[in-house]
Predict the 3D structure of the following.
Amino acid sequence: GVEHTTVARRIDALEASLMGETMMVGTPVSGIVRSVNVVEGQHVEKGQPLFMVFQQSPLDPDGGKMAAIVAQRGGTVYGVNATVDSFVQASQVLARIVDTSPAGLYVQASLSASPEAARTVTASQPATVRASFLKDGETLSAAVTSVGLYDATKRTIDVRLRFTEPLSQPD
């Protein structure tokens, strides 16, 4: 019989970041911020009220309506860019929500590789992640989801990896 052997190639990352999918939270109306219901680093659930913006009626100086800005996804709030009684423009970004769930996390890495090794890195390719935040010897299974262009000067290639197994919660 013929024996098939898979040869795994190790390519080390010069730098890598654990990232989460990010959603900008904008306001659909111009107006005055009447309440800010979140703080930096707070976890929010989808549908949770984040901001209230009062939109004054151009036809009636005493009239207007309140617009509730709610989280369109769950995650962690960063970059809160509104304070009570401040004026905001329609479509202005008021905050960012980063999906920090295991399904929303990915690794963005810059790999050190020769041109030959870089040509072997392809989308959908399985990968193993070892990182300082993991317990000694622990690895996570991942898959390459995108591959950037090879930088011949730096001898690097940028890749994005998605985890293919659930991340264990810290003890």
User: Anything to note?
Assistant: DSSP finds one helix and 13 strands in the chain. The CA atoms of residues 83 and 113 lie 47 Å apart. The longest helix spans residues 115-119. The chain has a mean pLDDT of 85.
